[in-house]
Amino acid sequence: MELAGIAFQKMIVMFIILISGAIAYKTNIVTKEGNSTLSDLLLLIVNPIVIFMSFQMDHTPELFTRLWISMGFALICHAVAILISYIAISSKSENFDIERVSAIYSNCGFIGIPIINALFGQEGVFYLASYIAVFNILLWTQGYILMTGKTSLKHILKGICSPCVIAAVLGIICFSFKIKLFALADEAFTHIANMNTPLAMIVAGVTIAQSDILNAIKDIRLYYICFLKLLVIPIAAALILRLFRADEVLTMTSVIEIACPVGASCTMFAIRYNKNAVYASELYTVSTILSAISLPFVIMAANLI
């Protein structure tokens, strides 16, 4: 129950920031066009720096080995999510692309980072960094293709060469070869990385303010997607990961990450590629509310497996 309390507290903080974004929109401080610009800032500058900075820690042989194991676990979690989402969400459904991306890609950075740090400290955050690296590589390739419908090699390479993927590769190289930033650059990048959570919540808040949230919570379809995202996929992933009998912190970090609610990245992708951003933000909001209950349940279930 201690974890449930921590998760609940962190989500309250997220909602307070989110509400400030909604207020900013309602008072015309941030416009719809301005929100699109903020979304690009987050996706193309802030997120890559967060990923890179996650690997700026001391190298040890044990951590180096666990880095690749945690990446393998991240791949397994996403493979499970992709398989279940493609089976359970028909391509004939309206907004199927948003629903599949929502089911596959979690809020592993914005909500995952504070929860993992509170539970497992620096070790958990390091494993989380490798998870986020895999997350972003897949988001900007498989997720990009799913959202845009562009499957040519040119567009796949464009996704692979995105700032987030480049940052992940550079971060792993720097960690592997023990390359550290000089003090002033480290401080500057840390300040930018610290913008990640508040900026993401503000963008989501502005987007939510454009929708009818009271009507959204009456939409049965939203609960179906949330059921897949918050319970079916993470429990299935936990069952598979337990077969490897790996380190408990490493395993639970992966389970918690895939159990996080719908990622803000889906809303930002919807904004960027002119999809139904309002529906994406509704999935984000409803899943975040429900995760206050589902996340502790998944963690308890994973401990019993």
3D architecture notes:
- The structure is a single chain.
- The chain is an all-alpha fold.
- It has helices spanning 2-26, 32-54, 61-88, 96-104, 112-148, 153-160, 163-176, 183-193, 196-208, 213-216, 220-241, 248-259, 264-272, 277-304.
- Helix 2 (32-54) packs antiparallel against helix 9 (196-208).
- The protein is built from 14 helices and no strands.
- The chain has one domain: Up-down Bundle (Na+/H+ antiporter like fold), CATH 1.20.1530.
Tell me the structural class.
mainly alpha
Number of domains: 1
CATH architecture: Up-down Bundle
Mean pLDDT: 86
The span between the termini is 17 Å
Any idea of the CATH topology? Na+/H+ antiporter like fold
Rg (C-alpha, Å): 18 Å
Number of helices: 14
